[in-house]
Specification:
Layout lengths: L10 E5 L5 H16 L5 H6 L2 H9 L5 E6 L2 E9 L2 E7 L8 H15 L4 E7 L3 H9 L3 E7 L10 E8 L1 H9 L3
Parallel strand pairs: 4-5
Antiparallel strand pairs: 1-2, 2-3, 3-4, 5-7, 6-7
Helix pairs in contact: 1-3
Length: 176
């Protein structure tokens, strides 16, 4: 018997390429709707079309990264200033290191631009995201009510923060 082992494709994280925009928009559309379909009014859900996400990512093309398993996109991250604006991983690829890998690339980008702290946010009902950031020692530094987002329900936007590598290294080398 000839035992042939097919290796599992390795995870790759790389910047969004021009020819990958539609795949990235499809991924974001799927993740966003999967997360919010039970939380938000149908009017708001219907506004977030594939065209909406394509335009959204087109504006962020220079600061967007995709995580891949072979030829399949598994997740994406975008940043602006010192903020991780988006961090999305398809449900079937969660708990496999894609979120951490994307977050690491985003933090390296923020650190290289000279910021001492990085920030990220999510709504309080997004338990998977809040658990992810908490598990990685991000601290909640702010809460803001999102009035009218979900009719009849109080929703808060949570703001998480953590020092960048540069800031953490400076804190360790500072005299006590």
């Amino acid at each position: 018997m000839n035992d042939v082992v097919t290796p599992f494709p390795q995870r790759q994280v790389r910047p969004l390429a021009n020819d990958e925009l539609s795949q990235a928009a499809e991924l974001l559309h799927r993740c966003w709707h999967d997360t919010y379909r039970r939380q938000l009014p149908s009017r708001l859900l219907s506004e977030r079309t594939l065209d909406y996400w394509t335009d959204y990512l087109e504006q962020r093309r220079e600061r967007c990264w995709l995580s891949w398993v072979g030829s399949r996109p598994a997740g994406l991250a975008t940043v602006s200033t010192n903020c991780v604006d988006d961090l999305w991983v398809l449900r079937r690829y969660r708990r496999r290191g894609h979120g951490r890998a994307l977050l690491q690339v985003a933090l390296e980008h923020i650190d290289a631009r000279g910021f001492d702290f990085a920030q990220a946010g999510c709504e309080d009902f997004n338990e998977e995201a809040t658990a992810f950031f908490s598990h990685l020692d991000w601290q909640v530094i702010g809460r803001e009510p999102l009035l009218g987002l979900v009719p009849g329900r109080q929703v808060e936007a949570l703001v998480f923060s953590r020092p960048t590598r540069k800031s953490a290294e400076q804190a360790q080398s500072a005299p006590a």
